[in-house]
Specification:
The chain is an alpha/beta fold. The protein has a domain at 2-112 and 175-229: Rossmann fold, CATH 3.40.50.300. The protein is 43% helix and 17% strand. It contains 9 helices and 10 strands. It has a 5-stranded parallel sheet with strand order 2-3-1-4-8. It has a 3-stranded antiparallel sheet with strand order 6-5-7. It has a two-stranded antiparallel sheet with strand order 9-10. Strand 5 (123-126) and strand 6 (132-134) form a beta hairpin. Helix 1 crosses helix 8, helix 2 (32-41) crosses helix 3 (45-56) and helix 6 packs across helix 7 (161-184). Bound molecules: adenosine monophosphate.
Length: 244
Amino acid sequence: MQKYIIMGVQGSGKGTQAKLLQDDYELVHISVGDIFRWNVQNYTKLGARIKRMIAAGQLVPDDVVAEVVKSRLEQHDWNYGFVLDGFPRNHTQAEFFLESYDIDAVILIDVPDEVVSARILARRLCSACGLDYNLIYHRPSTPGICDVCQGRLVSRSDDTPEVVRARIDDYHTKTQPIIDLFRRKELVVVADGTRPALAVQQQIRDMLALDRPITAAAHTKNGSSGGALVMAPAGPSGTVMQLR
Ligand code: AMP
């Protein structure tokens, strides 16, 4: 079993890399941001509570985050392990996590701020099927229209220049120190996130000494962007699942 945390400033490609690891090694990709967005889109009680914070790019309170992560991991659907994406984001969250779980490595995707900022502002999402696009390197054939379902492409409400700046600043002030904490524990491997997605993935595999993928069909099926991520309805405990 492999348990990883993937870190990097928003737009570094950590979600893409986590999905590739999920496809290739059957690791469960747990994206805290996706869980929050699902709750907002589905008008849950939690969604109502966090909606404004998400739209403003502010961090959700630590107790809420801890509860969401704890209940997600308690589903124990991660037989081969997991890749935790978007968590921990500050010292309190790192301490909570390390008290209860051990991890094998922290994968840090390194990309300069100006590169991630341009990438984030070019992100688009299909409002109907949720497929991700990027106007820099994964454009739709018809501008503004999803290639797969013809849905309308929209920006995430938190992908505005002001919010992006706030998220990058937050990352440097709050998240960078916990990378130093993980470094002291010799858990961090650093990948060059300015390279194409599959080259970054290869570098990660080499650094973690991962064997050949156990599910070879994954790349041809989804392409390097990792395919659509669809959040299924919550179970009775209020936890959510990720389905293809
Ligand atoms: P992301 O998709 O990782 O960019 O997350 C989107 C938004 O969800 C962030 O801007 C925060 O508002 C919230 N969020 C995600 N993960 C966390 C976390 N670990 N702690 C606090 N807020 C979070």
